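Q: Hi! First time asking for a complex rather than a single chain. Here are the components, and I think there are two in total. Is that enough to go on?
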Amino acid sequence: MKKLLSAPALFAVAGVLLIVGVVLAFWYSPVDASSMGFSQKILYYHAPIAAAALVAYGVAFVAAIAYLRTQDLKWDRLGFVSVRIGLVFSVLVMITGMIWGKAAWGTWWAWEPRLTTFLLACFLYAAYWVLRSVVDEEQRRATYAAVFAIIAFIDVPITFFATRFLPEGLHPVVVGPGGGGMEGSMAVSFGICMIGMLVLMAAMIVRDLEIELIKDRVTDLKTSLGG
Amino acid sequence: MTIEEGARYVAAAYAVIMAVLIVYYFMSSRRVSVLKRDVELLESETQRRQAPAGGAE
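A: Yes, that's all I need. Here is the structure of the assembled complex.
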């Protein structure tokens, strides 16, 4: 079981799913009939990456609560790496979103609800990183970071529901009742890409957690050697 | 928008995603192997320092 949840195994599963998903997206799913046309193919990775970013922030939120309850630093490590991976995915969402925006709407950026709240999430979690770097004492840093992660998470459901509560924005609802209006073969490709991207996010969190734990071990050994 | 124009945007988006994820994968793999090597070196150094002390007792 432990091997199945190891980073290399998760990377392999994610790689297979993402390749299958993108092959289906290009050769099985039809070209979107709306004004988006072929550029709609960006959706198959763009939306799952956005979902992975928000789920990573969700993991950081859960880890923050767990840390405040237990004061166990392993939860702080999990929260830290989840935010880091969330930020990687967020940057990808912003870049691919801008490319898609230019293709579909004719503009790189629009101050509409989904984009604005997502950008706010990026700034909040970038601030989380800055906050960590200015506090030296480990337990205090972990406590501040956990409280900040809980506050920052308020923006995540707002981002997710922005297109549902404020439908006048440019962003379409992708996943919703009735498949969000997605045709069957598109939904299959999209679903495979979504699972693949979430597994990839899990693989990256496991990998980064492994790095943090080994770094802790290196620090302990250096301390015991007097250097 | 023609398919060719759309394809250019799609290719750019997927290229960015692939580049970032592939670079992340190789950088993180390398980081793990470098850190594991550091641990091995530090552990062997710890054992080496403990060995004479143990032998003298």
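A: The domain at 7-28+39-171+184-215 of chain A is CATH 1.20.120 (Four Helix Bundle (Hemerythrin (Met), subunit A)). Let me know if you'd like any chain examined more closely.
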